[in-house]
């Protein structure tokens, strides 16, 4: 039984490790922007591959640990982490739905990173989704939220405003929030801008962001006293797995820190 479990665990670790490395190589082939989120699956994958191979060679020492209490603690931690990962991924995927037939006071489009002053595909997908809603609801104003980050020559909100105007959205409908560098700040600073409009009671918002990001965006929006609805933009399947894995760690961080 122990030999069988070791063999099964080794295969699981090797497969997960191989998938992580392949994910990284695939994104590098696509010339994705280098950041920690891109590298992280590979960082995790390499130890998994090593452990899996060591298990296959019967050189991994975990199954030789005689202190059953110590071994049990390790197993419990592993199960808890795995269970939390599965739960969070289910929440992320279940939030990928459009809230239709709702009336809102504002649309908030969240930035997604620029290369210089150019939008990425993910960013443009968010913008195009927001434009669809704004054309269908000409009475609603829009807050474009995003500051200037590493490798960006202009604030994301400035690029978003130009994109909206270029696509027929009147400049008078656009409010620029140019200070935020995180999802928490997106909503915090957007709330401040709404209050500056003298409309403190305006709480219902339509969030436009990527599908994998919608669960966390709504959670943080509610923490900033908004009634939140979602309009998710689709992420290309080639980068969706990496995005969902990265989002797990972002959700855990936001759950405990972003308050």
UniProtKB/TrEMBL annotation:
GO terms for biological process: Gram-negative-bacterium-type cell wall biogenesis; peptidoglycan metabolic process. The chain crosses the membrane at residues 12-30, 36-53, 73-96. Residues 105-249 form the DUF218 domain. CDD domains: YdcF-like (cd06259). Keywords: Membrane, Transmembrane, Transmembrane helix. One of its GO terms (cellular component) is plasma membrane. This is DUF218 domain-containing protein. InterPro entries: Cell_Envelope_Assoc, DUF218, Rossmann-like_a/b/a_fold. Pfam families: DUF218. Gene3D superfamilies: HUPs.
